[in-house]
Write a structure and sequence with these properties.
Elements (H helix, E strand, L loop, with lengths): L1 H7 L3 H14 L3 H10 L9 H11 L5 H4 L3 H14 L4 H10 L5 H13 L6 H21 L2
Length: about 140
């Protein structure tokens, strides 16, 4: 279905965007993981808006069970993302990764990350992480899963 839709797109910019995000929509978990790991290289994050779209698809609530393994690596990549992206990219990255999450396991992953960050970890990134994770922490407290 995705390939059929891609063939219908005539605008070059839209076609490139679709090609970038399509693997994040894949039914195959290996292809989704490959898409995520490809983003660890700064050159593969240049189109930040498109990357955010793909990340949103990757972490969609319907994929929450299979995408929770990307939470820890997403947090680990944050410092590099701040160094190489625009001002809002780290917050958008975390918002896309944590949006809609409710489980205690994911909340514990974020808490463990914040506990283990080095002493020289930027205070701004710590604050962004806490802000993005606040709805997650609240939901985990309520639902306690």
């Amino acid at each position: 279905m995705l390939a059929t839709q891609l063939a219908r797109i005539e605008t070059p910019d839209r076609k490139q965007r679709s090609e970038l995000v399509m693997p994040a929509l894949s039914a195959g978990p290996v292809e989704r993981e490959r898409w995520f790991l490809f983003r660890s290289d700064v050159n593969n994050r240049r189109r930040e808006y498109w990357v955010m779209q793909g990340l949103g698809y990757l972490h969609h609530p319907l994929r929450a069970a299979t995408s929770k393994k990307f939470i820890s690596p997403s947090l680990d990549m944050l410092w590099n993302i701040q160094k190489t992206g625009d001002t809002f990219f780290p917050a958008n990255w975390l918002d896309a990764s944590l949006s809609g999450r409710q489980t205690r396991a994911v909340a514990d992953t974020v808490h463990a990350f914040l506990t283990d960050v080095p002493a020289d970890y930027p205070a701004r990134l710590r604050a962004i992480t806490l802000q993005s994770a606040d709805p997650l922490f609240r939901a985990a407290d309520i639902f306690g899963k």
